[in-house]
């Protein structure tokens, strides 16, 4: 019994692992483990019976958590967009745009995956959409099946790190930090990861072109009426818009100063990127609209189509992320506006009906209930774990690691990487993060930076063979048997499970490289955050004292007689001496003298 009493925390954690390995649902495993060890702790006298009285209050606090409202809003937005045909239009147009170059379809998948991540935030929707649309095209024209499956799965997981990401909302709630700060910190790492994926495909196109061939001429249907490509017009429009965005980005501080009327020396990097990109997008939309309305034919039809296909998702990105980064809306409000914007876009495409809305609402409700049940179970587990001094045990276990901060970060990331083989990001966020956050904060690690680092690491949970969820999603839509292609009339061989696993490995390595870069260069995350303002409390106190009127001596007998100065000799017993500039100290001394009297 004595061993059990002194080691209840590690035994409790081992019991949770056993529950999970036996295959019980995570939410019920957490709750059952918490209640079971709570009763054991009460019987052993380790825990007070009143501990369980705090559970209803904690559950009620979960229901009052406004931050978690962003989860159903962003989920609904993503599901409506996924079913409104936006992904199909994007993949078709961007695939035709990049098709003439080697690896063009794979680059289009990466680009569209980033756009879907910034609008849907749902991995399953992105992977399934791109698997249904792009995988048959890549198989039809000779792409290596490992690269085709790997790039689709990896591009879908960008929804984990590019805002608005559900995992960032959960991490912000568990770490006690702002969702907006988490979004700002993750913005640049998400863009860098997208760039690394694209560089990998470009390297394959250079050194192994047979793995990523270009589309043949007969597959390029996006052309002008006279047979020309129409690319020069699109190139000119792109150069003008990019130049305008760069100009706005370089003069963002001056624009802020002009807009607010106050001198602004520095603007956050994420805000600069969003506003500059939105200016370039708006310029392209205005140019394309004027060209279509006036029939000037200054732009090719290809340029018009690309512009009008890309504008809606980019506009939605600004509506959601732009308002959050600019401080106009909270993440919950941004999610609500995004859901409304998705409905408007679906109505404009004439894709919104009651069946689609009912299906999206049902899926949103299921996911939201799934998250809340896990959170309630984690709350029960965490309450008991804190009662048996579990956080203190974890702190002693991790804070004493050699290497200080670096040693802690290496061990934590290796642990999260291997746990991601068996647990998804919801379970990792609710079980592991609350145990790691106090230790990280005591070691002086910024929790926003720590949260983004964990988010990038947790992204690997979707790519781990053999349990990666993105691989399961792709397996569900990839052809398992040979079939006859409708266009070429050729027999297409199936995609095997081992090919999907092999294709995920290079992108998994890229994700781990990104984790290492964030540890080595913390500015990748911190550069997107607002600059912290350090306040000098001593200086503030001196300024406050200087602004206050001089202290008045109410014990002075000449008080109230203008023009007459008080004499120190005339002060009665117990009065503060003249010239005393601290009335609180004088009052304290007077009370001490009164207390000393018999």
TrEMBL record:
Which regions span the lipid bilayer? 7-28, 34-55, 67-85, 105-135, 147-171, 186-207, 233-253, 273-294, 306-326, 332-348, 369-388, 408-436, 466-484, 505-525
Name the domain of life. Answer: Bacteria
UniProt keyword Transport, yes or no? yes
Got a GO cellular component term for this one? plasma membrane
Q: Which Pfam families match?
A: DctM
Compositional bias ranges of the Low complexity kind: 560-578
Say if the entry is tagged with keyword Membrane: yes
For the TRAP C4-dicarboxylate transport system permease DctM subunit domain, which residue ranges apply? Answer: 14-242, 276-524
- Principal location: membrane
Q: Under which name does UniProt file this protein?
A: TRAP transporter large permease subunit
From which organism does this entry originate? Answer: Comamonas antarctica
């Amino acid at each position: 019994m004595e061993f059990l009493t002194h080691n209840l925390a590690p035994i409790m954690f081992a019991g949770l692992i056993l529950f999970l390995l036996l295959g019980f649902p995570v939410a019920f495993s957490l709750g059952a483990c918490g209640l079971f060890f709570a009763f054991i702790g009460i019987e052993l006298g380790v825990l007070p019976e009143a501990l369980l009285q705090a559970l209803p209050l904690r559950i009620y606090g979960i229901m009052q958590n406004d931050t978690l409202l962003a989860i159903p809003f962003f989920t609904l937005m993503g599901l409506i967009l996924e079913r409104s045909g936006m992904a199909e239009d994007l993949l078709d147009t961007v695939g035709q745009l990049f098709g003439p170059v080697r690896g063009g379809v794979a680059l289009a998948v990466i680009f569209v995956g980033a756009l879907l991540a910034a609008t849907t935030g749902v991995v399953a929707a992105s992977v399934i959409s791109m698997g249904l649309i792009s995988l048959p095209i890549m198989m039809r024209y000779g792409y290596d099946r490992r690269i085709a499956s790997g790039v689709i799965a990896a591009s879908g997981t960008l929804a984990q790190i590019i805002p608005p990401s559900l995992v960032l909302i959960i991490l912000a709630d568990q770490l006690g930090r702002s969702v907006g700060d988490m979004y700002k910190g993750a913005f640049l790492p998400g863009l860098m990861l997208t760039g690394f994926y694209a560089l990998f495909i470009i390297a394959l196109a250079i050194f192994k072109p047979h793995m990523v061939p270009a589309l043949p001429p007969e597959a390029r249907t996006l052309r002008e009426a006279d047979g020309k490509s129409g690319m020069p017009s699109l190139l000119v429009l792109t150069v003008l818009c990019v130049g305008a965005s760069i100009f706005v980005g370089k003069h963002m501080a001056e624009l802020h100063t002009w807009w607010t009327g106050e001198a602004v020396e520095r603007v956050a990097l994420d805000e600069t990127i969003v506003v500059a990109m939105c200016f370039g997008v708006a310029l392209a939309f205005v140019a394309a609209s004027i060209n279509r309305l006036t029939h000037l034919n200054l732009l090719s039809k290809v340029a018009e189509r690309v512009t009008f296909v890309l504008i809606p998702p980019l506009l939605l990105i600004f509506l959601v992320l732009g308002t959050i980064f600019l401080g106009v809306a909270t993440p919950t409000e941004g999610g609500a506006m995004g859901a409304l914007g998705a409905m408007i876009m679906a109505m404009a495409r004439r894709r919104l009906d009651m069946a689609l809305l009912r299906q999206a609402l049902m899926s949103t409700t299921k996911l939201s209930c799934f998250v809340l049940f896990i959170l309630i179970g984690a709350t029960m587990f965490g309450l008991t774990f804190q009662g048996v001094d579990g956080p203190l045990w974890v702190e002693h276990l991790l804070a004493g690691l050699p290497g200080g901060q670096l040693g802690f970060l290496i061990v934590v990331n290796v642990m999260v990487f291997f746990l991601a083989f068996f647990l998804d990001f919801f379970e990792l966020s609710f079980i592991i993060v609350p145990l790691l956050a106090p230790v990280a904060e005591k070691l002086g690690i910024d929790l926003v930076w720590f949260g983004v680092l964990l988010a990038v690491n947790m992204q690997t949970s979707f790519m781990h063979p053999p349990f990666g969820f993105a691989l399961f999603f792709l397996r569900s839509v990839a052809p398992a048997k040979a079939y006859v292609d409708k266009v070429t009339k050729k027999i297409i061989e199936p995609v095997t499970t081992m090919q999907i696993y092999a294709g995920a490995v290079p992108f998994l390595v890229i994700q781990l490289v990104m984790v290492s870069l964030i540890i080595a260069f913390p500015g990748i995350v911190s550069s997107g955050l607002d600059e912290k303002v350090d306040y000098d409390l001593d200086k503030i106190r001196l300024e406050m004292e200087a602004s206050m009127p001089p202290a008045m001596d109410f014990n002075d007998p000449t008080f109230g007689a203008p023009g007459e100065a008080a004499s120190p000799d005339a002060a009665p017993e117990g009065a503060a001496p003249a010239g005393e500039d601290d009335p609180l100290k004088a009052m304290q001394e007077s009370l001490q003298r009164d207390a000393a009297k018999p």
